[in-house]
Queue: 4 jobs
Job 1
Amino acid sequence: MNSPSSRSQPVTVVAQPFDFSFDLASTALVIIDMQRDFIEPGGFGESLGNDVSLLSAIVPACRNVLAAWRRAGGVVVHTREAHEADLSDCPPAKRDRGKPSLRIGDVGPMGRILVKGEPGNQIIAELAPLPGEIVIDKPGKGAFYGTALHTTLQQLNISHLIFMGVTTEVCVQTSMREANDRGYDGLLLVDCTESYFPQFKTATIAMTHAQGGIVGWTATSEHLLGTLPA
Ligand code: C5J
């Protein structure tokens, strides 16, 4: 990890709708819900009838960014969509929505669906959190709803967020919008996010950077990596 003094140079990423500038010391990499429940067969994603193989395609790109960000000494936040074992934080409306073959809390091949501590609720091995990295268990789609994320980021003087993860139009977009409303500048890495519906990913990217970046910025991981130490 680099020393804090080498982390204070502002850098600029080629992005849409215009360049995104950030200072590593005040920027966090936020990795949304790269958990087995969404990416591997037998989890929540598949129980809703989705083809989960689409999502695993982004893992190598996410891994590259995470490795480079760690080398640079940047703050890393991992989130998981995760409920208490007694489901006290899961409204019946959420549990019943979509009539999934396995509902939240039901026992599936990877343990109880979207329940804290279960095998399926763990972040995939390729992106597993390191000691000291922030892990946020979130009961909603957005990373700020019902969590300490905003307080934690404020304590670290973080003002800029770089987003990766799944799914683009659900938890990633919701989190970016929540961040935007709280005053953060957010950048979405387009090759490090995926949806079960390719057209929804395309639409989310477009609506994020439309109207002068009404939700935030979008860029490729290649452009971000070009700004980080090799
Ligand atoms: C969904 C998520 N799609 N992480 N969760 O239910 O996007």
Note: Residues 198-213 form the longest helix (16 residues).
Job 2
Amino acid sequence: MFNLILFGPPGSGKGTQSEKLIAKYYLKHLSTGDLLRSEIARKTPLGIEAKKFMDKGQLVPDEVVIGMISYALDDNPDANGFLFDGFPRTAMQAQALDKLLELKNTSINVMLALAVTEEELVKRLVKRGETSGRTDDNNGHVIRTRILEYNKKTSPVAEYYKKANKVVMVKGEGTVDEIFSELTREIDARMKKIKTSS
Ligand code: B4P
């Protein structure tokens, strides 16, 4: 199994790059943002609760997101690996993920962290807000709250994986293909290492 976390602030391109990565490596894509938006669209109790936080640019409570990921892992017993996109976003989520993977005799191989300046993030999210219909993209105050939440609660998650020597920083500015090529270079190197050691 090969499990990777695509990490980065809101608008850093996690969703964009994930689509390309799953097509190349046949990993199961687990995006907590997409899972939550699907709950909202279906007006489930979980979605109705999550929407209150997402509309303000705040993180959804840990227990809700962890439960969702736990269910998704159990639902995909035959996956040959997972791409976690937008998860974990807090230290508690990171600890919970390690435990869930341990139960499946597997672990995170690498965290690829996209680095993008704040100015560029705001520009991308405002632009997406013009067409996406996402309520968290079309309000400057909400976008700023999302970036603040990231700086306060999510960026420490990288420290957690740094201690285990699993973090690689990748420049998240440039064309989508340039960034993709850098990400695949890092993944291929790690996959090759696993193959030669097994
Ligand atoms: P997410 O759905 O995870 O979305 P995101 O962080 O806003 O975007 P992403 O980084 O995927 O950017 P994208 O590729 O789309 O989160 C939404 C909300 O859900 C959170 O605020 C939170 O409330 C909640 N949530 C989700 N997970 C949670 C968790 N684990 N715990 C608690 N709450 C959680 O790119 C953005 C834009 O940039 C696109 O328009 C794209 O076209 C453009 N772009 C991408 N790459 C580009 C490039 N190289 N150059 C120029 N533009 C580019």
Note: The chain has a mean pLDDT of 96.
Job 3
Amino acid sequence: MAFDRYGRRIHYLRISLTDRCNLRCQYCMPEDMSFRPSAELMQDEEILTLVRLFAGLGIDKIRLTGGEPTVRANVVDLVGAIAHTPGIRSVSMTTNGLLLGRLAGPLKQAGLQRVNFSLDTLDPEKYRQLTRLGTIERFWEGLRAAEEAGLLPVKINTVVVRDYNDEDVVELARLTIDNPWHIRFIEMMPFAGATDFQTSRVVTAEEIRARIEDALGTLEPLNGGQLDGEARLYRFSHGKGVVGFISTLSHPFCASCTRIRLTPDGRLRLCLLRENEVDLLTPLRAGATLEELRSLVVEGIWNKPWGNRLAEGEIPMNRTMSQIGG
Ligand code: SAM
Ligand code: SF4
């Protein structure tokens, strides 16, 4: 088991399979984003070697993300190999969903258990503008395919952007009345690539919740109001689904953070909002032994930071969100 120096047991790994994406969401990356050459990204066997190493340290839960994880060649086989690694109990994915129309069934068969979708508006024109490339019809095709394949429960992440989709939160929350879906509203965070946009248009979880309750009535807390992972969960008394709020900026959840990340170029990222990373891919390619790599990981985890430094003006600028893996 791997612990950090604050006593947090780290057992959850998010792996970014690629920095590439079939969308260019305004809050995530610039329109003219350039991507790393494939040779700089972890190859399948390298990912699997690291997954085995992490599993040996007690990592039992993996989420695949990106960039857009579904644009990675061979993603179905890769999911299968990760899901069958001894020690790995759960494999899920965060995706924009556009390719799930054809991939949901094969991914489920390979061992994927759940999917978190990203959707920021129900308005087709706004969806196109915010993602710069996407069509909402393909999103709905992907979501329906995931439901049919049994990738449940369906969770939808919505990043809320002032003067863009802050009004849409009501219609998105309304979806939980008739559907057994989890809609989770996320405060926008600042990184490289779109920093001005990200810092000038933040809407706090409290404001989002007030807007939803004004329109749709009281949200009743679940879990006694305690955090469930990173989200605080609520439901409408007459609702089938769940409304969640992820308030990374206004109420950081560092005390309950049990996660680390692997970037597409093989760096162990210890906190989303801090630049600290440990390079694993370079030593792996240079012939480091598994014991040497294991020591790098154990030491990195031990030094996992606590708290962000945004209030002090320290924005993590070494990567865009898509290059870290959200
Ligand atoms: N492409 C996939 C997707 O969009 O779901 C996975 C990668 S994406 C980087 C993961 C999540 O991060 C998405 O839910 C996305 O909306 C969110 N995200 C991107 N940029 C963000 C930002 N600046 N602040 C908060 N969340 C962000
Ligand atoms: Fe792509 Fe996801 Fe970033 Fe949108 S949020 S540009 S879908 S990686």
Note: Residues 136-149 form the longest helix (14 residues).
Job 4
Amino acid sequence: MAKEYDVVILGGGPAGYVAAIRASQLKLKVAIVEKYKLGGTCLHKGCIPTKALLKTAEQWRSLKKAASFGVEVDNFSLNFTQAQTRKNEVISQLHQGIQGLMKKGSIDVYTGMGRILGPSIFSPLPGTISVEYDEDLEKENEMLVPKNLLICTGSKPRQLDVLPFNHTTILSSDDLLQLETLPKKMAIVGGGVIGIEWASMLSDLGVEITILEAFDKLLPSEDEEIAKALMKNFQARGMTVQLQANISQAQSTESDVTLTINGEEQCFDKVLVAVGREAIVNGIGIENTDIKIEKNYIQVNKNYQTKEAHIYAAGDVIGGIQLAHVASHEAIHAIEHMAGLKPDVNEKQIPSCIYSYPEIAHIGLTEQQAKVEFSNIVSKKFPLKGNAKALVNGEDFGFVKMIVNQDTDDLLGVHLIGDHVTELIAESSLAFTLDASAWEMGHTIHPHPSVSEVMQEVSLAIHDEAIHY
Ligand code: NAI
């Protein structure tokens, strides 16, 4: 029997489940269809598990330098199985939390594969969802007939023709999360966000890391000074970084992989391929609609409507900035638009974070982009070495850089590298939202001692008024 809904959401990641909650708040009758578990890549294969393992790496680093703080710790060792167990416990707790939120919002959850049907006996419009279950469940398909459909099917790791995943020695980031033991020597292909986070974590845990990046710098979309500072830091920690690396061949055995890099052979125990992610648009019935796909991404307008006005899409499946918080934001926008509200999104206000050691965070334009867009900019830096709390913490590597339009004092970009700077960027997010000037940020009283004072100092530096530098 067909069931009718105001909204059906296909995919239960940070776009889908957040959209379901917002729809429920707006009193829409809502269902969510998820083939695996609510939480999506972010919770099960991305943000949360990697951050849990990065926390293990942080604990390890702390122990290694504990003696310099006057704490003598003897005989500590890494139990990677326990690190994985803890990671899984964190995921499980958050997963339960999302399930609780679904119940609280009276959201119907279907755990099966959702497929979009074309016009049918259920509706003259495409968009009816057929929920299909695993054969062993012996459960019949169910039909969900929505007034509006929101597609949030996300993305999966992209593979390289020369290095197809074999899931034992040539790995995706999904595979890496299942490792039971650490390799000795590993190549990371792609010096982007995923590559950098894994390189940092595995290097801290004792794995010999070589990063192979095709471009002429790490993190091609970050500010150049930040990318250079990270590269120097990684090299000082013993990692090998090879830029403009062209991999022409890969030969794998059961226990290792030999890569031909710029004509020379190098052997590794394992290879992580992290060269971007691609949208999941196949096998979900898009061909039964007029939805347009370009470069493998679903095309949407500024309110996230596809060519079928009652079908929306949000998150990684539409491309753009592939971040969990962006996905949630887009999905809320889509739901509010369906409900007749007038939501607004300004891409300038999206912070972006990398959780390596050191961490990296930014919002707005890089200095290179600002120079192209504005004729009169000022850019200033403030080092963490000039901050008392950073010294107290024993974490004084890094800096904050602010770029401002000199004619108006408007913030154009804020970039940070250093310990836990992903927490500091939120202040700049608020500043962007409130359209605050550098003067206003500099004259906001920050607590002392706190690492957050670097934000005040760099804002004062814009007008040559920094106190501690
Ligand atoms: P990415 O686009 O960030 O980086 C891919 C890197 O691979 C680029 O530097 C590119 O130049 C390089 N590359 C491409 N082809 C190559 C080749 N043949 N050989 C060597 N290098 C090559 O993609 P990544 O790191 O896979 O991340 C995917 C998405 O997931 C990104 O959009 C990212 O923002 C998101 N993500 C965000 C996180 C966060 O917010 N902390 C954490 C993890 C992922």
Note: The radius of gyration is 24 Å.
